[in-house]
Design goal:
The protein has 16 helices and eight strands. The chain has a four-stranded parallel sheet with strand order 2-1-3-4, with helices on both faces. Strands 5-6 form a two-stranded antiparallel ribbon. A two-stranded parallel sheet has the order 7-8. With about 475 residues, it is α/β, with parallel strands linked by helices.
């Protein structure tokens, strides 16, 4: 049973005999990771079967002469390679995101793209690395089976989960209850929000014979059992009265999972509702033991990836540098002071994508369709090639590949006054890409900064090598869509 009790004081926790646990213990197998790994496994097994079936039905291999030397991959080897490629491409296209929008048209278009790219990569891998080939009929059959088969599997899973929704009983603030309902409706996840507060909820209380009014904590267990509720989410703020704690303890003894609002949102929607947490939330971040090992592995991966990236992108940088000089006067590279880990300033490097006089009126937010961006600059920003010089910042140890995006001192000073806990996003090194960048659209307002902070804090608490790999793969998908 998972119990999340960050909204209670230590004295209250002692009365409930419940102790809060550190966040790092659940990092490697959080609910997000369970969903991702589950789909990854299903994609791998399905992809392997698709290739084997395509091989089996191919007319070219129905009969062979004894002693025939096959110039192709063996069926098992080809299936194994495809089983590695297909789930990675699916992740890039966002199919492993538990909050993926349930749209049949988008599903169809994306899976056709996944299958086409997967089959193309299979052919390239065998040609470039093994000097063998997979027959065209097998590739075509694999493409058809992959796209049609995975669409069917996804629709079946959606149908089954929609028919067995997880019921969440919400006790407390009607505003937070409504917000949870909006989040569930927006994402389409198979949850049903059941508001049970007898004072502030939009639904009036019902009195059941022998039970307390709907929303009364002492009677919550019986009512939740009758309604088939799976979890109780507490949206109360401040000190929780003793009688309510007694009601909650009875719910725990009845086998219900009990979560506070902020922890439920963090676990379900992979972001932290910064308005609903207190300073003690940051004490859950365990920075010893396995965390130190993670940081060491992260630094090693950063150095290898940044060094390799600088070598591979050198020709592209030279070409871009020449085009930048031809299009507009000014330097090729653009440097700017940003705030790094623990609030230390550093100089970030980019390919210049704006006019040389872009900030003649002082620091400004970069807009989605910024008039200061040059024609070449739009291409550089869409493909994120303007970020390539930041490999140098990664090698210097000022940045990492994955982390909160570094912000300018002027904006940090402003946002720290308007957004609670904004400075805490500097607990980790800033990144070239980040959890906020792949989960929240481009924005240039204080409200956008607040929403991105919710994702940054989630990454800070749950940072792991597995989450970094998933973030990088989804960043590739964002670049392919032209998202910034």
């Amino acid at each position: 049973m998972e119990i999340i009790t960050s909204s209670f004081s230590s004295a209250q926790l002692e009365r409930l005999d419940v102790k809060p646990t550190g966040a790092r213990r659940a990092t490697w197998f959080s609910q997000y990771h369970r969903g991702v790994l589950g789909w990854w496994f299903l994609d791998s097994i399905s992809a392997m079967l698709m290739v084997l079936v395509a091989w089996w039905v191919s007319p070219a291999y129905a009969a062979k002469e004894p002693g025939y030397s096959d110039p192709h991959f063996s069926p098992v080897f080809a299936a194994t390679v495809y089983a590695l490629i297909f789930p990675a491409v699916s992740h890039i296209f966002g199919f492993h995101n538990p909050l993926m929008r349930r749209d049949k048209l988008v599903l169809t278009v994306k899976y056709v793209g996944v299958a086409a790219l997967g089959v193309t990569l299979l052919a390239l891998v065998e040609l470039l690395f093994f000097y063998a080939r997979v027959g065209r009929s097998i590739l075509l059959t694999t493409f058809v089976l992959s796209s049609a088969g995975m669409i069917a599997i996804r629709l079946v899973v959606w149908r089954l989960t929609a028919e067995s929704k997880r019921k969440i009983a919400v006790l407390g603030s009607s505003a937070l209850c409504e917000h949870l309902t909006n989040l569930v409706n927006k994402t389409g996840i198979p949850y049903e929000i059941v508001p049970l507060d007898d004072v502030t909820c939009v639904r009036k209380p019902k009195v059941i014979s022998g039970e307390h009014p709907l929303g009364c904590f002492q009677g919550a267990s019986g009512l939740c059992r009758r309604c088939g509720v799976h979890e109780i989410v507490v949206c109360h703020t401040g000190e929780t009265p003793q009688d309510e704690l007694t009601g909650l303890s009875n719910s725990l003894l009845s086998g219900f999972q009990v979560s506070d609002y902020s922890s439920f949102v963090e676990r379900t929607f992979f972001k932290v509702p910064v308005e609903q947490i207190g300073p003690d939330w940051f004490f859950q971040i365990n920075t010893s033991g396995d965390y130190a090992l993670f940081l060491g592995a992260k630094r090693l991966a950063d150095v290898i990836l940044a060094g390799t990236g600088m070598v591979l992108t050198a020709p592209v940088l030279l070409l871009a540098a020449g085009l930048i000089k031809l299009e507009s006067p000014g330097p090729v590279f653009y440097s700017q002071v940003r705030i790094g880990q623990f609030g230390r300033p550093f100089k970030i490097w980019k390919l210049r994508s704006m006019r040389n006089d872009a900030e003649k009126h002082g620091a400004q937010w970069a807009q989605k369709h910024d008039a200061r961006v040059t024609r070449l600059g739009r291409i550089l920003r869409l493909t994120r090639l303007d970020e390539v010089p930041q490999f140098y910042n990664v090698l210097r140890g000022e940045m990492s590949f994955v982390g909160p995006r570094p912000e300018r001192p002027e904006f940090v000073s402003q946002l720290s006054k308007e957004i609670i806990f904004y400075q805490q996003r500097h607990l980790l090194k800033p990144g070239i890409t980040g959890w906020a960048q792949i989960n929240y659209p481009y924005g240039a307002t204080t409200e956008d900064a607040r929403n991105k902070l919710k994702y940054d804090l989630y990454y800070i608490k749950h940072a792991s090598s597995l989450l970094d790999v998933q973030t990088i793969l989804r960043t590739i998908g964002a670049v392919m869509k032209g998202a910034r």
